[in-house]
Design a protein that fits this description.
4-stranded mixed beta sheet, about 30% helix, Glutaredoxin, about 100 residues, alpha+beta
Length: about 100
């Protein structure tokens, strides 16, 4: 099962949640829903080099996909989801979440 870390207030995450929530291949984890989900995400983000570029750009790194083999990707196409539109971004600079 692919874990998907999202947050309800993130525009991109809302699209992912709408698609992945209906697909049994995904476990959707909303990091704003409970502190244990946030801690799980932060442990991943703080210690995995996949987030280095994301953090360097000042982004959070959501939506984040943890594949069954443990690899982390931010690529919607790699998990067969579709970014429907370029909605409002949730970062301070407007370039991504």
């Amino acid at each position: 099962m692919i874990k998907v870390f999202v947050m309800q207030t993130c525009p991109d995450c809302a699209q992912v949640k709408a698609q992945a929530g209906q697909d049994g291949r995904f476990e959707v984890i909303d990091i704003g829903e409970h502190v244990r989900h946030l801690k799980q995400f932060l442990a991943l983000r703080d210690h995995n080099p996949a987030f280095d570029e994301v953090k360097a750009r000042g982004q959070v790194g959501i939506p984040c996909f943890v594949l069954e083999d443990g690899r982390i990707t931010f690529d919607w196409e790699e998990v067969n989801l579709t970014l429907m539109d370029e909605g409002a971004s949730c970062s301070l600079d407007g370039k991504g979440c």
